[in-house]
Amino acid sequence: MSRNNLAALVIFGLGGCLASPGTAAPPLIDHQEVSCSLPGKNPRICATVADDGVVKRAKIYFRAAGQSTFYWSEMDLDFRKFCATLPVPDPEVKEVQYYLWAIDDDLEIERTKDLTMTVDGDRTCNHPVIDEDPDRTARLVVHATSRKQGKKMSGFLPDGVDYQRIKKR
């Protein structure tokens, strides 16, 4: 048996006797970009998140355009999709940047590219995705990603939001 054949047997597990290298794949996030929302409304972002194991957690990271740091919220399973309702953007905010993030039971992580949603004051938004469920919009939880974000959110209205800032130790 040649050295190469012996190495192949060791690498590929001697017919399944040895453990094979990890074959776990990260979660797959299938998301139709939300291109616009309406002023004074809570955007609702949803995605299908699938995995070869179990999706442990899905989050949305978001910020008003021009901010340096993101906020994040959990995405909850709503029927077959993970969804999150965002706070209402401040009236002067014209764009919200966001991305989706997921982790599975093998600690594999996936995220979407950065996406931009316009907040259209001219009402030219043909298909706004907004949340009009008063129970959901009254109990939003938003987390800071940096201590520099301070005691209140910037770029979003505080109504119905439990803001979880990072406290100094």
Task: Bin the strand percentage.
Answer: 35-45%
The low-pLDDT segments are: 1-21
Helix content: under 10%
Number of helices: 2
Distance between the termini: 62 Å
Structural class, from secondary structure content?
mainly beta
The CATH topology: Immunoglobulin-like
Q: Briefly, what CATH class?
A: Mainly Beta
Q: What series of H and E elements makes up the topology?
A: HEEEEEEEEEEEHEE
**What would you call the shape?**
globular
In CATH, the architecture is: Sandwich
Give the tally of β-strands: 13
Give the biggest beta sheet.
Answer: 8 strands, mixed
- Number of folding domains? 1
Query: What's the CATH superfamily, by name?
Result: Immunoglobulins
The chain-level mean pLDDT equals 86
Helices and strands in order:
Elements: H1 3-11, E1 28-30, E2 36-37, E3 42-50, E4 55-64, E5 71-74, E6 76-78, E7 81-85, E8 95-104, E9 109-111, E10 115-119, E11 130-131, H2 134-137, E12 140-144, E13 161-164
Parallel strand pairs: 2-10, 12-13
Antiparallel strand pairs: 1-3, 3-7, 3-11, 4-5, 4-8, 5-12, 6-7, 8-9, 8-10
Task: Explain what this protein looks like in three dimensions.
With 169 residues, the protein is mostly beta strands. It has one domain: Immunoglobulins (Immunoglobulin-like). The chain is 8% helix and 38% strand. It has helices spanning 3-11, 134-137; strands at 28-30, 36-37, 42-50, 55-64, 71-74, 76-78, 81-85, 95-104, 109-111, 115-119, 130-131, 140-144, 161-164. Strands 2, 4, 5, 8, 9, 10, 12 and 13 form an 8-stranded mixed sheet that branches. Strands 1, 3, 6, 7 and 11 form a 5-stranded antiparallel sheet that branches. A hairpin with a 2-residue loop joins strand 6 (76-78) and strand 7. The longest helix has 9 residues, at 3-11. 26% of the residues are buried. The model is unreliable at 1-21 (pLDDT under 50).
